[in-house]
Specification:
about 325 residues; alpha+beta; four-stranded antiparallel sheet; 14 helices; about 65% helix; elongated
């Protein structure tokens, strides 16, 4: 354990002295996670959402992928060229994401936009590749999955949520609505998942209408698209918000006799603090009550630093729904 801590400290010291290498390392990690995220999304889409079987009903995803489903279904139905649904969805998914990626480049950050492009590109590629892979189709056609729309919805929501969650957590995205919601969440400093709901619902209604045109005899199955889509959104949003904690706030309250702790915290974190003078009810001794708002990913570091300075400090952590006022969040690159 101590050896691991020493190695970790050496790595941190090295990157502290070599900022260029640290930047390259962070860029590589983000690109790698973005690639993994893209493959996970493509797997969930190909296995649990779109079956690519003629005449079969697919699940609705919402967002840019859901819009792609609708356009691809229309083109395949009314064209006479025998277009491949999987290939068409791959091409359209990447093409529709181009405006969002350009927006991200100028409004969010260059690194964010480039790594998001990697994600979208690999998602588009693997959606097409997975559709022709035997073991993917074996999973999709398994009796426990093919015969249970509820199972498909839950697994699809988990895959999408994990894909978006790990991407957003590392400072990138899966493209599409993730870019829009990430931009809004940074501006409003609140959770990401809930911004998807309204936009996704509109896309699902559009997809339902397209299916009514293409499959006019399957009205009952088509109407059921909406409740299953809502369950899919709920699952994916819960997974996203449980992984992506960038905008979750924690109120930290520290009771200590050491007045030096405040200076250390202010120097190490981009947040100020409020100090209350108090005295212990039992001991009668003078105490300092320090109240500080931090992002949830900063809490472990705060507790570790306080305990290192004052092992006897009393610390409470309280989750916050929202913070109004000036609260600094590190910008996305």
């Amino acid at each position: 354990m101590r050896k691991t801590v020493r190695i970790k400290k050496k790595i941190q010291d090295y990157f502290f002295d070599h900022p260029k290498q640290k930047r390259i390392y962070n860029y590589s990690i983000t690109t790698f996670i973005s690639a993994i995220s893209g493959v996970i999304f493509a797997f969930g889409f190909s296995t649990f959402i779109s079956t690519y079987q003629e005449g079969s009903m697919n699940l609705a995803t919402g967002g840019f992928s859901g819009f792609t489903q609708s356009i691809a279904l229309l083109l395949v139905t009314f064209s006479s060229g025998g277009l491949s649904l999987s290939l068409l969805q791959s091409i359209l998914y990447f093409a529709i994401n181009i405006p969002a990626l350009i927006f991200a480049f100028f409004k969010i950050g260059k690194k964010f936009a480039i790594t998001s492009t990697v994600n979208v590109g690999l998602s588009s590629l693997f959606i097409s590749l997975f559709s022709s892979m035997g073991f993917i189709q074996d999973i999709a056609n398994n009796v426990f999955i093919a015969s249970s729309p509820l199972t498909r919805v839950i697994f699809a929501g988990i895959c999408t949520g994990v894909s978006s969650g790990i991407a957003l957590k590392t400072g990138t995205s899966c493209g599409g609505m993730d870019i829009v919601t990430c931009y809004l969440s940074v501006r409003k400093s609140t959770g990401v998942g809930k911004y998807n709901i309204v936009a996704n619902f509109i896309v699902v209604i559009f997809y339902m209408l397209i299916n009514l045109i293409v499959f006019p005899n399957n009205k009952v199955e088509i109407v059921l698209i909406v409740p299953f889509a809502l369950l899919y959104f709920l699952t994916s949003s819960m997974v996203i918000d449980s992984i992506h904690v960038r905008n979750k706030k924690i109120a930290v309250e520290i009771i200590t006799k050491n007045d030096y702790i405040t200076d250390v915290l202010i120097n190490l974190f981009p947040h100020s603090a409020t100090i209350f003078e108090a005295h212990g009810a039992y001991s009668g001794q003078e105490e300092h009550v320090i109240k500080m708002m931090v992002s949830s990913y900063e809490t472990k570091k705060v507790v570790r630093i306080v305990k290192k300075i004052d092992p006897n400090a009393f610390i409470t952590l309280t989750p916050l729904q929202q913070v109004y006022g000036n609260f600094f969040i590190n910008p996305i690159e």
